[in-house]
Design goal:
This protein is mainly alpha-helical. The protein is 47% helix and 5% strand. The chain is built from nine helices and three strands; from the N terminus they run αααααααααβββ. The protein is elongated.
Length: 220
């Protein structure tokens, strides 16, 4: 009888531990450590956070997270859960820490989301060209040095502003992302593209047009 009770207790502890490890981790006011530093660094890089990267989730970090969530059509609660972490470009593991680097699969999916939001309906080569522009910005010193940083730079892409970045990418967008990551650049090194029929930016018209693909013009 005692052995049976002991076995039941062991099973219950195992189930509780497994459930705890499987639960999505979150960062919120009062959290501390390296995960918070990574969030602060990303948000400061994009102009949302002002202050020291100290790993303390206080009022400044809270306000910065809320501004980021508001601008990216996320639930504005000041909490970094799975969706906000993904939008920022980080991944929270089951111990609550942030992955040290973004995997290729993560980059393919995020790039695919940007393609789907920005170039849905464009010819395939145009989708690859949009992805190439993002990668060209990553490599240029005037822009953030990560794919997530470029995509979520404030005001950079319409798909982020109107929330289409959060749509699930189709297979063609993911394939275009892989082709761009593998080195195909139909834009010939361009860092900008725009639709002349819908663009409202006067500045973009000062860019030199390199190539026209579908509805988009690409230039530098």
């Amino acid at each position: 009888m005692k052995k049976r009770i002991l076995l039941i207790l062991i099973i219950m502890v195992f189930i509780l531990c497994t459930a705890a490890n499987a639960a999505p981790r979150i960062l919120y006011w009062g959290s501390t450590g390296q995960p918070v530093k990574d969030v602060q660094y990303r948000l400061r890089e994009w102009g949302y956070y002002e202050g020291d990267v100290d790993g303390i989730y206080g009022s400044r970090t809270y306000r910065a997270v809320r501004r980021f969530q508001r601008n990216n059509n996320l639930s504005v609660d000041g909490i970094v859960g799975p969706k906000t972490a993904s939008a920022i470009g980080i991944r929270l593991d089951n111990a609550g820490s942030v992955a040290a680097s973004t995997s290729r699969d993560d980059n393919v999916y995020l790039l695919g989301r940007a393609i789907h939001g920005e170039a849905r309906g464009e010819p395939y080569i145009g989708k690859v060209a949009v992805a190439a522009v993002i990668l060209n910005r990553v490599d240029h010193p005037s822009f953030p040095n990560s794919i997530a940083g470029v995509i979520y730079q404030p005001g950079a892409f319409t798909a982020v502003s109107d929330g289409q970045i959060n749509l699930a990418p189709d297979d063609e967008s993911l394939r275009a992302a892989r082709d761009a990551l593998n080195g195909w650049d139909p834009s010939y090194g361009c860092r900008y593209y725009w639709n002349p029929a819908t663009s409202t930016s006067k500045w973009i018209w000062s860019r030199k047009v390199i190539i026209k693909i579908g509805k988009h013009w690409f230039g530098n």
